[in-house]
TrEMBL record:
Keyword set includes Transferase: yes
Family to which the UniProt record says this protein belongs: Belongs to the class-V pyridoxal-phosphate-dependent aminotransferase family.
Organism: Mucilaginibacter agri
The Aminotransferase class V domain, residue ranges: 26-389
Cofactor(s) in the UniProt record: pyridoxal 5'-phosphate
Keywords, comma-separated and alphabetical: Aminotransferase, Pyridoxal phosphate, Transferase
Gene3D superfamilies membership: Aspartate Aminotransferase, domain 1 (3.90.1150.10), Type I PLP-dependent aspartate aminotransferase-like (Major domain) (3.40.640.10)
InterPro entries: Aminotrans_V_dom, Aminotrans_V_PyrdxlP_BS, PyrdxlP-dep_Trfase, PyrdxlP-dep_Trfase_major, PyrdxlP-dep_Trfase_small
Protein name: Aminotransferase class V-fold PLP-dependent enzyme
């Protein structure tokens, strides 16, 4: 395994393979990364072939490559291909698994203050429908998830530990490996939302000890929008009920009986975009060829530079905290709301995003934040681009 730092020459080559880097300074990778040209070509060429040869005929021609998607994803997260379902996005993946859990009145769901809005909505729906209880583990004064508080919160009624590894509107990270050890010790179902993790941070589901992992393609994996995947550990697949079925999910034995398939594809349906599935596969392969360890090393390096430089700008407050931080850098500019900052940067061809309170509601409310500027780094970003962002912010502050 190559763990050496990406060289300047490699970064130049990777940028040359990504058309968008010549047009924009893109710091919105936590929203949607710029895809490599080969991913775009894979999708477009497949669509052209569908248009000229027919959809089913093209699928038959590329069946082996479509099936290889599951092997590539399994390599990415150290799973078995029979534990993978290809779906449209992380929210679909998360919802398919979560809503397949057999909740009973009095069951307890444990989560963190960093949980994403869609997942919180799922908890509240389960509370209304099944009478479950939701317990939130707050971060400590240093901004770290408290493993001790987690241990103290677990009871015989604890049904699920559901954790978002990297939150939407903060640069801190939740210790999912250590949480997994606790979940396994107590034999509690463990669900990890890794939508910001895959393609940025190395993932090993065996090391995490998770039962379920949900991932989107469009973020750090640099895959097309409308792609994602779900991992469900083989041993728990029968414990989750499929929310709906088609002839792909199950097969009819006779007119009165059916049998659900015995792998992870029971959680997907037959009809999906074959073009974007191949795009997802190509994006995963691209990340694997670079090495996710190397990607993570560069992301941390660049994010560290950005945070240091932001902290030296009078009028800018960096909001990231915690022992381990990722490529998402959040900050605010005194006297200028986040949307205005985003708009002014866009005029300079610099993409950032705005993190709203609703995206990570518990955390944002606790820290009295209504919105923040989110600049999310990827390996194809450069120090020169960081300097452009800093200079643009200095100009915004000077012109207030």
């Amino acid at each position: 395994m190559n763990t050496s730092a990406l060289s300047n020459e490699e970064v130049k080559q990777l940028r040359a393979e990504t058309k968008g880097t010549s047009e924009k300074v893109h710091f919105n990778n936590a929203g949607a990364s710029l895809p490599p040209d080969v991913v775009v070509d894979t999708v477009v060429n497949y669509l052209y072939e569908e248009a000229s040869q027919g959809g089913y005929e093209t699928e038959a021609k590329y069946q082996q490559r479509l099936d290889e998607t599951y092997n590539l994803i399994a390599r990415l997260i150290n799973a078995d291909k029979d534990e993978i379902a290809v779906v449209e996005n992380a929210s679909i993946a998360w919802g398919l698994a979560f809503n397949g859990i057999d909740f009973k009145p009095g069951d307890v769901i444990i989560t963190s203050e960093m949980e994403y809005t869609t997942n919180l909505l799922g908890f509240l729906k389960a509370k209304q429908a099944h009478g479950v209880e939701i317990k939130v583990i707050p971060n400590d004064e240093q901004g770290n998830f408290s493993l001790r508080a987690l241990e103290e919160t677990i009871t015989a009624q604890t049904k699920l530990i559901a954790i978002t590894h990297i939150p939407s509107t903060a640069g801190g990270m939740i210790p999912i490996v250590e949480i997994g050890k606790i979940a396994r010790k107590h034999n509690i179902l463990y669900l990890v939302d890794a939508c910001q993790t895959a393609g940025q941070v190395p993932i090993d589901v065996k090391e995490i000890n998770c039962d379920i992992l949900s991932v989107t393609g469009r973020k750090y994996l640099r895959a097309p929008r409308g792609t994602g995947f779900l991992y469900v550990r083989k041993e728990v697949q029968d414990k989750l009920r499929p929310l709906f079925m088609d002839g792909h999910t199950a097969q009819l034995i006779d007119e009165n009986t059916f049998e659900i398939r015995n792998d992870g594809r029971r959680f997907e349906v037959y009809e999906k975009s074959r073009a974007t599935t191949l795009g997802l596969a190509k994006a995963v392969e691209y990340a694997l060829n670079i090495g996710v360890d190397r990607i993570w090393q560069r992301v941390q390096y660049l994010a560290g530079i950005l945070r240091d430089q932001l902290r030296n700008v009078d009028g800018v407050t960096v909001h990231d905290f915690g022992a381990q931080q990722c490529g998402i850098v959040t900050f605010s500019v005194k006297g200028t709301d986040a949307q205005t900052v985003k708009n002014e940067l866009a005029m300079q061809n610099i993409n950032v995003s705005v993190g709203q309170a609703r995206n990570t509601l518990i955390y944002m409310n606790k820290n009295h934040l209504t919105s923040i500027v989110r600049a999310s780094i990827h390996y194809y970003n450069t120090g020169e681009e960081i300097s452009k962002l800093i200079n643009a912010l200095l100009a915004i502050i000077a012109n207030k």
